[in-house]
């Protein structure tokens, strides 16, 4: 079985010795048996840490859970700086969490959290920051300052947390390069290993924004397709 890995150029490796191996096991095999210079990231080996995300045949996957197949083409994530081979610099992606104020600000009188409250953002809490959604999002191609799927999912997580005291401040921050820039294409949802739908979270944040008096800035420029009048 042969696979190709994008390094400075596409390099083909014969990994016929391996049967039913994950991509991470295959990368480890190549590094120990064929080419010690191959560089990639990994940690937990069990889909928990999010560090091994790459693209296979143009789709984002976790290397530790993906089973390698004949002819696979492996590339680093998109929309991030490639440091070497499959290792990317995630700093800019993580900066968006800070820019989006995606953390909790507890009020002095914190209410008790019920099980129903917890369910509101249970799924969002499962994000492992693998940045697969960031890589798959087409908006970054035209706007590298877009706050993007996982940061907006984090904002939703905290905005929907009953203990948070400044939801309004978070909603204010995501009006620019945020929720209204998303095209609702759903690419982020399709690649998320944790079944998180950032698209759905963005839609909920849009509804929340209207409750605070915001409206879609693109709405005013919509001409209703009546150019011929
Ligand atoms: S739905 Fe929005 S955030 Fe998700 S990939 Fe599409 S444009 Fe990006
Ligand atoms: S939302 Fe999903 S795809 Fe995006 S960083 Fe979190 S776990 Fe990864
Ligand atoms: S090595 Fe941790 S998610 Fe793959």
UniProtKB/TrEMBL annotation:
<dbReference type="InterPro" id="IPR012675">
    <property type="entry name" value="Beta-grasp_dom_sf"/>
</dbReference>
<dbReference type="InterPro" id="IPR050573">
    <property type="entry name" value="SDH/FRD_Iron-Sulfur"/>
</dbReference>
<dbReference type="InterPro" id="IPR017896">
    <property type="entry name" value="4Fe4S_Fe-S-bd"/>
</dbReference>
<keyword id="KW-0560">Oxidoreductase</keyword>
<dbReference type="GO" id="GO:0051537">
    <property type="term" value="F:2 iron, 2 sulfur cluster binding"/>
</dbReference>
<keyword id="KW-0001">2Fe-2S</keyword>
<dbReference type="InterPro" id="IPR036010">
    <property type="entry name" value="2Fe-2S_ferredoxin-like_sf"/>
</dbReference>
<dbReference type="GO" id="GO:0051538">
    <property type="term" value="F:3 iron, 4 sulfur cluster binding"/>
</dbReference>
<comment type="similarity">
    <text>Belongs to the succinate dehydrogenase/fumarate reductase iron-sulfur protein family.</text>
</comment>
<dbReference type="Pfam" id="PF13085">
    <property type="entry name" value="Fer2_3"/>
</dbReference>
<keyword id="KW-0816">Tricarboxylic acid cycle</keyword>
<feature type="domain" description="4Fe-4S ferredoxin-type">
    <location>
        <begin position="116"/>
        <end position="147"/>
    </location>
</feature>
<feature type="domain" description="4Fe-4S ferredoxin-type">
    <location>
        <begin position="172"/>
        <end position="202"/>
    </location>
</feature>
<dbReference type="InterPro" id="IPR009051">
    <property type="entry name" value="Helical_ferredxn"/>
</dbReference>
<dbReference type="InterPro" id="IPR017900">
    <property type="entry name" value="4Fe4S_Fe_S_CS"/>
</dbReference>
<dbReference type="Pfam" id="PF13183">
    <property type="entry name" value="Fer4_8"/>
</dbReference>
<dbReference type="GO" id="GO:0009055">
    <property type="term" value="F:electron transfer activity"/>
</dbReference>
<dbReference type="GO" id="GO:0006099">
    <property type="term" value="P:tricarboxylic acid cycle"/>
</dbReference>
<keyword id="KW-0411">Iron-sulfur</keyword>
<dbReference type="GO" id="GO:0008177">
    <property type="term" value="F:succinate dehydrogenase (quinone) activity"/>
</dbReference>
<dbReference type="GO" id="GO:0051539">
    <property type="term" value="F:4 iron, 4 sulfur cluster binding"/>
</dbReference>
<comment type="pathway">
    <text>Carbohydrate metabolism; tricarboxylic acid cycle; fumarate from succinate (bacterial route): step 1/1.</text>
</comment>
<keyword id="KW-0479">Metal-binding</keyword>
<protein>
    <recommendedName>
        <fullName>Fumarate reductase iron-sulfur subunit</fullName>
        <ecNumber>1.3.5.1</ecNumber>
    </recommendedName>
</protein>
<dbReference type="GO" id="GO:0022904">
    <property type="term" value="P:respiratory electron transport chain"/>
</dbReference>
<keyword id="KW-0408">Iron</keyword>
<feature type="domain" description="2Fe-2S ferredoxin-type">
    <location>
        <begin position="1"/>
        <end position="80"/>
    </location>
</feature>
<keyword id="KW-0003">3Fe-4S</keyword>
<dbReference type="InterPro" id="IPR004489">
    <property type="entry name" value="Succ_DH/fum_Rdtase_Fe-S"/>
</dbReference>
<dbReference type="InterPro" id="IPR001041">
    <property type="entry name" value="2Fe-2S_ferredoxin-type"/>
</dbReference>
<dbReference type="InterPro" id="IPR025192">
    <property type="entry name" value="Succ_DH/fum_Rdtase_N"/>
</dbReference>
<keyword id="KW-0004">4Fe-4S</keyword>
<dbReference type="GO" id="GO:0046872">
    <property type="term" value="F:metal ion binding"/>
</dbReference>
């Amino acid at each position: 079985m042969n696979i190709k890995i994008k390094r400075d150029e596409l390099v083909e490796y014969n990994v016929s010795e391996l049967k039913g191996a994950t991509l991470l096991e295959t990368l480890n095999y190549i590094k120990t048996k064929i080419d010690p210079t191959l560089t990639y990231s990994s940690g937990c080996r069990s889909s928990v840490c999010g560090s091994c995300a790459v693209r296979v045949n143009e789709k984002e996957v976790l290397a530790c859970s993906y089973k390698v197949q004949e002819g696979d083409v492996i590339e680093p994530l998109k929309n991030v700086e490639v440091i070497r081979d499959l290792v990317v610099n995630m700093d800019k992606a993580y900066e968006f969490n800070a820019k989006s104020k995606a953390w909790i600000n507890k009020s002095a009188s914190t209410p008790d959290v019920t099980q129903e409250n917890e369910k509101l953002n249970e799924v969002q809490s499962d994000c492992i920051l693998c940045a697969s959604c960031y890589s798959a999002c087409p908006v970054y191609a035209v706007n590298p300052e877009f706050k993007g799927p996982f940061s907006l999912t984090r904002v939703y997580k905290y905005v929907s947390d009953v203990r948070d005291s400044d939801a309004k401040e978070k909603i204010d921050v995501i009006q620019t390069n945020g929720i209204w820039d998303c095209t609702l294409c759903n690419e982020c949802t399709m690649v998320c290993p944790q079944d998180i739908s950032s698209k759905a979270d963005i839609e909920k944040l849009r509804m929340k924004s209207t409750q605070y008096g915001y409206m879609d800035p693109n709405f005013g420029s919509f001409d209703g397709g009546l150019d011929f009048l």
